[in-house]
Amino acid sequence: MSDAGRTDQGAYTAVHNDPPVGIISGGGSLPLAVADAAARGGRRVVMFAVRGSADAEKFAPYPYHWVGVAQIGRLCRLAQQEGCRDLVFIGTTVRPAIRQLRPDFGALLLLPRLLAMFRGGDAHLMSAVAAIFEKRGFRVIGAHDIAPEILMPDGLVGRFEPRETDRRDIARGLDLLRTLGRFDVGQATIVAGNHVLAVEAADGTDEMLAHVAELRRKGRIRSSGGVLVKAPKPGQDRRLDLPTIGPRTIEGAVRAALAGIAVVAGDAIVTEVESVRQIADRGRLFVVGVRDDPGAR
Fold it and tell me: In terms of domains, do 144 and 156 share one?
């Protein structure tokens, strides 16, 4: 079978008769959407469902195997048996504490390295995980490499547009995320009237939105509107953890009484885009893909 190739710019390109792609799947609807897109492109798909995160019942159209979060040896063995050369990590997972890991023999051999991986932020951890699999002969690729349609487009998704004040909040949010990202902190913030209301922490975007909604309900936030801004961290491995929005994000932004959502076009994922558009329009929210160009500000 022919191998997958790379363009002159280093981006992944699929080649006819590529070997099966293994999708290491956390929770949410995105793993299945990526699998469906890969299948439409002619790739055979094998799903590896992470215990405690994935809903394997959704994977019924595809062969799948259960794997524990620290079953590195099992995952490598199964992927090799299935003929997978390319691996994709996608879906939501809860970062376990080290004491909660149940490593198999393959992971035990890497125990000192695993302990070092957990001493840092999520970007550090994910890059280290990718390096382990690449050392074993696999190629780790981005979900958007086999499903480019999941990337946020440039411009509006829906009917409503940001006002000039919203655009200033977007610019401030991008500046903030660029600064915080160097410390491997968060991919999202909420800015209203040039005032930072919240920054994403370990509990994620949904909890941040719920917190702002509760503060507004209690009268602790008196300013109106505001923008949820999402962007990847500087230097982040785009194959492993792009910022994501979906219908739940829009619903949370409506409950938080925000004016809209801005994410970096081409560097973020949008799931169930038609549902996103409909919920945003009903909530009179703008959703926009923007370019993060520091030189333009």
Answer: no
* Alpha carbons 259 and 224: distance in angstroms, whole number: 8
User: Which are the contacts of 179, defined by CB distance < 8 A and separation ≥ 6?
Assistant: none
74-87: pLDDT as tens digits: 899 999 999 999 99
Report DSSP letters for 183-219, one per residue.
TT--SEEEEETTEEEEE--TTHHHHHHHHHHHHHHTT
Residue 88 near residue 39 (C-beta atoms within 8 A): no
Residues 6+ apart with CB under 8 A from 82: 20, 22, 46, 63
Please classify residue 5 by burial: count the beta carbons closer than 10 Å to its beta carbon, then call 0-12 exposed, 13-18 middle and 19+ buried: exposed
CATH of the domain at 50: 3.40.50.20
Domain enclosing residue 234, as ranges: 151-296
Q: Which of 81, 73, 4 is nearest to 38 (CA)?
A: 4
Look at strands 86-90 and 188-192 and give their pairing.
unpaired
How does DSSP classify residue 151? B
Got the DSSP string for 273-286? HHHHHHHHHHTT-E
pLDDT in tens, 181-191: 888 778 999 99
- Its pTM stands at 0.80
Domain boundary among 127, 148, 169: 148
Rounded to a whole number of angstroms, the CA Rg of the chain reads 20
